[in-house]
Design a protein that fits this description.
- The N and C termini lie far apart (64 Å).
- By secondary structure, the chain is an alpha/beta fold.
- It is globular, with a radius of gyration of 23 Å.
- A 5-stranded parallel sheet has the order 2-3-4-1-5, with helices on both faces.
- It folds into 2 domains: 196 residues, 3-Layer(aba) Sandwich (Rossmann fold); 118 residues, Zinc Finger, Delta Prime, domain 3, CATH 1.20.272.
- α11 runs parallel beside α13.
Length: 380
């Protein structure tokens, strides 16, 4: 193995359950494209940011990133000229220094933007990567890197690329420019074009075991001033989020900040109401449930229903609930009442809905159809 290695997890901003992947990286023989995939909320994005920084680090030290060289400082300030991030508007805050709203080098620009924001009506952020952004990034690859070293292109989430943007990316993957590295991230590998997958080295980001994930989460929460929660609530939310520690952390922070317009806050409230409705079985008021939850992201509501039905199926087969042990009594009772063939058909309906969850259809109409079908699971 080469001398140019990235440092161990103990000195880097890497989640402990991703340590094995991190330690296996070799910067001197890095592929032109890697596709990191796995469940949302497991730390893929922070991992990829640190990886990009290591690939751009210009120090001659054994371990990278050094956090001392000029390239590292540029990266941390969010201004490295050879780091290109293709993310939708909804994800830009996840980049180093977000949208750089505190850039002291351009106070006039910051003030003008603030004035424009205060006068303009509330604008909904786009969830897909525009073809203009994709083309702009790809077209710039024809010239050499600004600093004469690597150039890193980060794309997240890959499955949110529009078809035209995906085709633009594919052309560059087929004939990658010199010293250009693509770091692609996907929550759903099944939604990535096979032609893109075949041109990347695939890296599966695992979900941590429950004990490791909860220990990491408690450690993170202990560093947040004023955020206090009892252990039972933390464990309950951890299970509800499918054992994804970063997703749980974001949810708890959103709830702590009490931002009623925050997408995560809306999702938490909607998921909790949806669970209450699902626990009613045949007595569910599906019209009211759809009305009360329709403002949340459709994909989150579908995930909640999938986890609930997964627990129902497990209980129906003499197992126990994995996601909602807090509702174990209700789940066991409903599992006895459910008609198994109908439950399996409803599960297939949820899978089909997940395939088209980003389609611009009215969320309420789709929810009403699914929740009405759920009610029928418990009827003869």
């Amino acid at each position: 193995m080469s001398d140019l290695m990235i440092p161990s997890q103990s000195t880097r901003k890497i989640a402990p359950w991703l340590e094995a992947i991190w330690d296996g990286m070799d910067l001197s023989a890095f592929p032109n494209a890697v596709l990191i995939h796995g469940q949302a909320g497991t730390g893929k994005f922070p991992f990829s940011i640190e990886l990009a920084k290591a690939l751009l680090c210009e120090a001659s030290t054994v371990t990278k990133p050094c956090n001392q060289c000029e390239a590292c400082h540029w990266f941390d300030s969010g201004n490295h000229p050879d780091f290109i991030a293709l993310v939708p508007e909804t994800h830009r805050k996840l980049l180093p220094h977000g949208e750089f709203e505190n850039d002291v080098d351009s106070p006039k620009k910051a003030k003008a933007q603030a004035d424009a924001d205060s006068d303009a009506p509330e604008k909904k952020e786009k969830k897909s990567i525009s073809i203009e952004d994709a083309r702009g990034a790809i077209e710039g690859l024809s010239i050499g890197s600004h600093r004469g070293s690597n150039r890193v292109i980060l794309v997240y989430p890959l499955e949110m690329l529009r078809a035209d943007s995906a085709n633009t990316l594919l052309k560059s993957l087929e004939e990658p420019p010199k010293n250009t590295i693509f770091i692609l991230l996907a929550d759903r590998l099944d939604r990535v074009l096979p032609t893109i997958r075949s041109r990347c080295r695939l890296l599966a980001a695992p979900r941590p075991d429950r004990l490791t994930g909860l220990d990491w989460l408690r450690n993170q929460l202990s560093n947040i001033s004023g955020l206090k929660m009892n252990g039972a609530d933390i464990e309950s939310i951890y299970d509800e989020q499918g054992g994804a520690p970063y997703a749980v952390l974001d949810s708890l922070i959103a709830r702590h900040n009490k931002d009623e317009k925050d997408e995560l806050t809306i999702a938490i409230q909607a998921s909790r109401y949806l669970l209450q409705a699902l626990s009613q079985g045949a007595r569910i008021n599906w019209l009211d449930a759809a009305d009360k939850t329709q403002k949340a992201r459709y994909s989150i509501l579908l995930a909640t229903m999938q986890r609930w039905v997964s627990d129902l199926q497990s209980s129906a087969q003499m197992g126990g609930p994995r996601y909602y042990p807090k509702h174990e009594a209700a789940i066991k009772l409903l599992a006895q009442q459910a008609r198994l063939p109908k439950l399996l058909r409803f599960w297939k309906s949820l899978i089909q809905a997940r395939r088209h969850e980003n389609h611009p259809l009215a969320t309420r109409i789709q929810l009403e159809a699914l929740l009405s079908q759920y009610q029928q699971v418990f009827e003869d």
